[in-house]
Amino acid sequence: MANDNPPDIQVILERLFSLHRFGIKPGLERTLSLLELLDNPHKKFKSIHVAGTNGKGSTCSMLAAILTSAGYKTGLYTSPHISEFNERIRINGQPISDDDIARLALPLLDESEKAATTFFEITTSMAFAYFAEQNVDIAVIETGLGGRLDSTNVLSPLVSIITSIDLDHTQYLGLTLESITGEKAAIIKPDTPALIAEPRTKLRHVFSKRADLVHAPITFIQDVYSAEILHWNRDFSMEINIHSPFGSLKNLQCSVAGNHQINNILATISVLDTIGSDFIINESSIREGLANVGELTGLAARIQLIRDEPPLVIDVGHNPAGLRKLVETLSKCGYSDVKWNLVFGVMADKNVEEMLSILKPITARLYAVSPVYDRALPALEVALKAESVGIYTASVFNSVATAIKEAITTHNPTLIVGSFYLADEAIVELAKYSFGVLKK
After folding, report:
1. What angle do CA 269, 77, 302 make, to 5 degrees?
2. Using CA atoms, how far apart are residues 208 and 217, in angstroms rounded to an integer?
3. CA-closest candidate to residue 437, choices 413, 416, 418
4. 374-395: per-residue pLDDT in tens?
5. Minimal CA–CA distance to 26: which of 136, 152, 142?
6. 3-state DSSP assignment of residue 313
7. Per-residue pLDDT tens for 62-112?
8. How close are the terminal C-alpha atoms of the chain, in Å?
């Protein structure tokens, strides 16, 4: 991914990214070995652990924004990053410095040569070490992939949260919703509250089985929390009321929008209620946090408006479920009649035909691209798959930058959507224009 780091940190990051050659290796043994070398930092701070297919990044960021607003020193660990590795590890919204990356990464990189540890295992160990040494009050931790064998699943959190479930990473997590749910549910820890934001009742038995096994109190959030959307805004914010067992919060301004975000917001509020004996959060902190999620945490590219007229929107919807939510939110926020110049690039392991079928009704012209990443689907194949689902306006571009430049100069509505790697390259290109760049 693009970044402007100085050469010394660049060399270290190149070594770190080279660990992708080991691929994804589920299991906790290597992470535990690394953490042992670091004197087990994961046992030295309080944490909130979040898993799910979609929504976990937004939920983590909303939690971190509110906790930061309340005055707590709050760590936030999310993945993947968009532009810079530093984005993955933050305290009170501030990314980890290059110097701290270098200091924490070097000994772990040396160790990785012995055990063939993966990129994510080292990154997770770095984050936990950083949060421990910086004495955070609490850290909000997002799983990378799945849950049961994810490197983050060494934590003993105050609470475990699981957001929506969908078919993704099926080669690792299984081919059915039930099998994927089982992998996510494995973050539920003994005698630790579990909060479930996945609304489908047919999956409840999977969560309940895990909770019963480890004697964890479990709450299905939709049973006790509810909300209504009062107003949708064209800048992809919304105004809502929330109802909980502890009262109502009315006329909340939320800087993220979508029916899907309601579940994430309810999950966030339920977490705050659950940890209330340890962390005092008043209503003003909730209001400030929800109204300023991006500014307080760096969350970006979640259906984000970059320019008003003509509209320019960027989103990291990278699977069918995410794109359905995108299309719905575009309509709710006042863009139901808009046809978009669609700059689209995706990883080859995704269900690209289904993704394109979802986007077809809102597409005026497709700008097919391939982000610079070894797992990216070639742009020509994107175009061919588009034609196979009835999008006959596809053009192939040799770079993301070229596609964006041409799409913008048509002065028509433009939507940039697909992988995080696409968003990275898009940010670099968008920085050249007078309407600016995504906030870090």
Report:
1. 65
2. 9
3. 416
4. 889 999 999 999 999 999 999 9
5. 152
6. strand
7. 999 999 999 999 999 999 888 899 999 999 999 999 999 999 999 898 887
8. 15
